[in-house]
């Protein structure tokens, strides 16, 4: 099963929503749009997005309330998009649980960079789970520590980010493009570059006798869900 990074775009300006959806699709994400809080709640419940782009001024309520609802249940990254740039409102949004605050008008490249950062921070903070165990491996997402049979393994920051992204989608294929985009942004697009890092990661994890990090040729990589040992 190939996983897609679903982004919920909550924006009542139909033209801007279409532009954001098109930009996200071009960048390799799977965007879904909502024009109201009620629709956003339905879409979030049905699709379980990995991040949310949220306008605050919506026809049926204040987006700040939606931030509170999301934060009460999950650590899904939220990037606020609004024309209101008052400092007090920014403070309220961030205190409510938003991860970032972007004032309209904004550049699409900057928005994508902020979205990538929010997604990375969610992985680094252990948004999916504080710790993932599979076979001999224990991956502590919050502490950024990896152990094999209790012994700590030293990884580079990039190697850990790759492993954390796979651990967050344990048992599912994560596409090459999604890994490249999440770890390097637009800096790297060559799949061979990713293969080198995955090769180094396999060696450090000592998985020759326990092939847990597997390749789906032409698609991506998957961390196998195996009983802890």
Structural notes for this entry:
The protein is of the alpha/beta class. The chain folds into two domains: 2-124, Response regulator (Rossmann fold); 131-223, Winged helix-like DNA-binding domain superfamily/Winged helix DNA-binding domain (Arc Repressor Mutant, subunit A). Helices cover 42% and strands 24% of the residues. The chain contains eight helices and 15 strands. It has a five-stranded parallel β-sheet with strand order 3-2-4-7-8, sandwiched between helices. β9 and β10 (137-140) form a beta hairpin. α6 packs across α8. The longest helix is centred in the middle third of the chain and has 17 residues, at 108-124. 33% of the residues are buried. The mean pLDDT is 86. Residues 6-119 form the Response regulatory domain. GO terms for molecular function: phosphorelay response regulator activity; transcription cis-regulatory region binding. Residues 129-225 bind DNA. Residues 129-225 form the OmpR/PhoB-type domain. The modification 4-aspartylphosphate is found at residue 55.
Topology:
Elements: E1 2-3, E2 6-10, H1 14-26, E3 30-34, H2 37-47, E4 51-55, E5 57-58, E6 61-62, H3 63-71, E7 78-82, H4 87-96, E8 100-103, H5 108-124, E9 131-134, E10 137-140, E11 145-148, E12 151-153, H6 157-168, E13 173-175, H7 176-184, H8 191-205, E14 213-216, E15 220-223
Parallel strand pairs: 1-13, 2-3, 2-4, 4-7, 7-8
Antiparallel strand pairs: 5-6, 9-10, 10-11, 11-12, 13-15, 14-15
Modified residues (4-aspartylphosphate): 55
Domain OmpR/PhoB-type: 129-225
Protein name: DNA-binding response regulator
């Amino acid at each position: 099963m190939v996983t897609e990074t679903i982004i919920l775009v909550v924006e009542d300006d139909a033209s801007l929503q279409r532009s954001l959806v098109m930009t996200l699709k071009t960048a390799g994400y799977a965007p879904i749009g909502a024009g109201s809080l009620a629709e956003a709640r339905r879409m979030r419940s049905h699709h379980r997005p990995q991040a949310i782009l949220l306008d605050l001024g919506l026809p049926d309520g204040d987006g700040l309330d939606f931030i509170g609802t999301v934060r009460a249940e999950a650590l899904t990254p939220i990037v606020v998009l609004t024309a209101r740039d008052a400092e007090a409102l920014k403070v309220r949004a961030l205190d409510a649980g938003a991860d970032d605050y972007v004032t309209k008008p904004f550049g699409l490249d900057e928005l994508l960079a902020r979205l990538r950062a929010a997604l990375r921070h969610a992985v680094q903070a252990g948004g999916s789970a504080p710790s993932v165990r599979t076979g001999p491996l224990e991956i502590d997402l919050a502490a950024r520590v990896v152990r094999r049979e209790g012994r700590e393994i030293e990884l580079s920051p990039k190697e850990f980010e790759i492993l954390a992204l796979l651990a967050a989608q344990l048992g599912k294929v994560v596409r090459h493009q999604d890994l490249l985009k999440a770890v390097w942004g637009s800096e790297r697009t060559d799949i061979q570059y990713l293969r080198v890092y995955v090769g180094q990661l396999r060696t450090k994890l000592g998985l020759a006798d326990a092939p847990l990090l597997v390749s789906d040729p032409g698609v991506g990589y998957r961390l196998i869900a195996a009983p802890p040992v």
